Hints:
Elements: E1 2-4, E2 10-14, E3 18-20, H1 21-27, H2 43-55, E4 60-62, E5 79-82, E6 94-96, E7 101-103
Antiparallel strand pairs: 1-2, 2-5, 3-4, 6-7
Helix pairs in contact: 1-2
Amino acid sequence: MEVDDPGGAVMTTHIHMQVCIEGALRNRSFSGYTDDSGRPLTRKQARQGLLLLQAKGHKYMPLGECEGFDPFGKGCPGHPDPVPDTLIHAEDPVEVGSVGLEERQLEFGNL
């Protein structure tokens, strides 16, 4: 998401991905979870961990590090980042190799 900075610079907001705990439990999405040391959890351990978080009132769990994450309802607060001046927009053609093919790079911001 792009926002205008009062100082005139264009800013992007980095939003971290999150898991809906209720949805993960309902869909039985228990694969890919790890403990704090990075070891894979069994499906039973992952389910128990999600149930424990839900019992504490958590609605969301971040996928990775996220400063200011609100597990009780809002999730990632968004993190403003300045847009570098060297971005290539979809409208800007880029020469590729000696054959002169045109390639377009899409701007996705900070996904």
